[in-house]
Amino acid sequence: MKKILFSLLVLFAVSARAQVSISNPKEKFSISATVDGVANTDYTWDTKHGDNIAEGNMTHGMNVKVKSNVNLVSGLAGTISVAPFYNFSTTQLQTTWDGTPMFDIPDEHHNYGVTVSALLNIMLGSKEHGKPISFLATTAPNFSEHGYENMSGVFGTMIHLIRKPDTYLAVGAIYLYGSLSWPLYPLIIYRHDFDNHWSVSMMELNDYLYYKVTPKIKFALGTELVSDKIYFRPKNEQLPQKALYSLLSERVGLYANWQATKEMSMELSAGANLPIWGRVRESGHRHVYMKLHDDVKPYIQMKVSYSIKK
Questions:
Q1: Is 0.85 surpassed by the pTM of this model?
Q2: What does the alpha-carbon distance between residue 62 and residue 245 come to, in Å, rounded to a whole number?
Q3: DSSP code for 14
Q4: What is the reported pLDDT for 10?
Q5: 98: left (phi over 0), alpha (psi -120 to 50) or beta
């Protein structure tokens, strides 16, 4: 059951990453800044067999994520876009084993790079009765304060089964490289408007169930899958010299969105942060050295977005 849930969460996350090219091809430029924070917790490290090997405390501090997207080519046949990103975190981990310091992850971490994406649309069958198919490919070099770290990306394909003004459904499969131990996942994207106020979406991961109060104000109750990573140098013979700490969490909360102007929107959310897993692996490799067990904790998040349509 846990593996099925994890697979669904990952495919939802990738759906959200592909959202700009798929859901809004008329968008020419966008930029967003997200600031969030969660409570501090204690944690334990386990081996892949579940044996406890270390413990410690985590000071989460503040996370700032800035990302932009520029559509270089956009049309019915597909899109080509570039998306620079920058993440700053003050998360700090202190780990001990039987009272002896094992390794520390200091605060002030930087992760940046640029994602290059290409989306190709073709028609399967006749124009009247056929179904459009999309092929997606992305690649992103990742850098930190230590320099170049690794390359990650996505290959995927999906068929658009329903495309109506009030309903959209697409299914397919994706392959992730450079990030997860199991890279192949199914893909489902779904959106439906019940009326002028209520709608449901599985494309925008942070909003499952919407309620639009006015054309400019809407609320949502749902979940958001958050993936954070920190590149560090543990200086421990038992761990790789070039290490990556990654954390996958599901956030359940209430969201409030305000479309301040035609181009700018603001969003505020708060709720519970549910950790799914944390991992330490060698940067650019899939082998897991340690698994993190963390606690559920509250979070608060604010996001500001600006976009220009064609």
A1: no
A2: 17
A3: H
A4: 46
A5: left
